[in-house]
């Protein structure tokens, strides 16, 4: 991730988002389905204020389907409209468009009664870097994307993308800053490959990842490295076993922790382990 967040930057982003919010009817908050809470900025709710909002969980192709089901229930219970998508394959996009219409229906019906016909629904995508905002904009716009050109009252740099006859999307997404100050959130962002390696300790991130995988996905950890471990094996011992299996040893024959950590972090980012989620709703209670 290239963006370094500092207070001035956040203030500017907040201002930009609140300016854009004036133009729109509904916010599409994009998060990563593998870490729906850690990949969002909780300040978004304050920023969005009274606007309607749909949570869109992206990269479902990488997330654990069983954990997705728990998140579905979580959003249902909270009365929060949500959609699961895979922006690369375009899965869930039709559902998203239907959901936008459904959420906006009461407003549209009210406006119709007031005689405001042919009103268009204006949407804004918000999310932290790397959750797939640009990919979603391209996918939802489709091939026939006809930019509608400048509309009076809209900043020149903003263009509207026509999603359907009655839905317009602002072509510039709102970029929120992730919550770096929370160590666990930072780790999860590192595991999904959203944080530049220079800003976290790779060996610590890899060791904590082993700690997570042995609890949540022990069979995947076993199958991937063909190693045996039980509740008495420490995380570091598991790392040693992985290093020995992969022959990641330094000259004197001792474990090369730097290379082992790099390999593990690389494999988790490349999703070699299969579909994995890194947080589930119960954790958030
Ligand atoms: P942005 O920073 O929020 O605009 O994110 P991008 O649209 O640039 O996407 C970040 C990365 O995630 C890119 O490498 C995309 O190809 C990838 N990506 C986006 N959507 C998906 C998805 O649904 N599944 C997978 N596997 N990757 C995705």
UniProtKB/TrEMBL annotation:
Keywords: Cytoplasm, GTP-binding, Nucleotide-binding. This is Ribosome biogenesis GTPase A. Required for a late step of 50S ribosomal subunit assembly. Has GTPase activity. Its main location: cytoplasm. Belongs to the TRAFAC class YlqF/YawG GTPase family. MTG1 subfamily. One of its GO terms (molecular function) is GTPase activity. InterPro entries: G_CP_dom, GTP-bd, GTP-bd_ortho_bundle_sf, GTP-bd_ribosome_bgen, GTPase_MTG1, P-loop_NTPase. One of its GO terms (biological process) is translation. GTP binds at residues 58-61, 130-135, 174. It is found in: Cytoplasm. Residues 11-178 form the CP-type G domain. The keyword GTP-binding applies. It comes from the Bacteria. Pfam families: MMR_HSR1. GO terms for cellular component: cytoplasm.
């Amino acid at each position: 991730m290239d963006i370094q967040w500092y207070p001035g930057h956040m203030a500017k982003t907040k201002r930009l988002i609140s300016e854009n919010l004036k133009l729109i009817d509904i916010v599409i908050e994009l998060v990563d389905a593998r870490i729906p809470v850690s990949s969002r900025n909780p300040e978004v709710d304050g920023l969005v204020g009274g606007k309607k909002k749909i949570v869109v969980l992206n990269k479902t192709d990488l997330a654990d389907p069983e954990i997705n089901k728990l998140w579905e229930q979580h959003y249902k219970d909270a009365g929060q409209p949500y959609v699961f998508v895979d922006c690369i394959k375009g899965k869930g996009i039709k559902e998203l468009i239907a959901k936008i219409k459904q959420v906006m229906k009461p407003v549209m019906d009210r406006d119709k009664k007031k005689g405001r016909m042919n009103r268009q629904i204006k949407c804004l995508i918000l999310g932290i870097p790397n959750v797939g905002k640009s990919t979603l904009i391209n996918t939802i716009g489709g091939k026939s994307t006809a930019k509608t050109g400048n509309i009076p009252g809209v900043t020149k740099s903003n263009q509207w993308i026509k999603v359907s006859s009655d839905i317009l999307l602002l072509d510039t997404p709102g970029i929120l800053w992730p919550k770096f100050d929370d160590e666990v959130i930072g780790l999860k962002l590192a595991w999904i490959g959203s944080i530049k390696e220079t800003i976290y300790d790779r060996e610590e991130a890899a060791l904590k990842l082993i700690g997570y995988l042995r609890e949540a996905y022990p069979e995947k950890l076993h199958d991937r490295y063909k190693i045996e471990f039980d509740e008495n094996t420490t995380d570091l011992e598991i790392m040693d076993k992985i290093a020995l299996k992969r022959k990641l040893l330094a000259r004197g024959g001792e474990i090369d922790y730097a290379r082992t950590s790099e390999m593990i972090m690389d494999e988790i980012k490349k999703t070699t382990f299969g579909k994995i989620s890194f947080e589930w709703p119960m954790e958030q209670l």
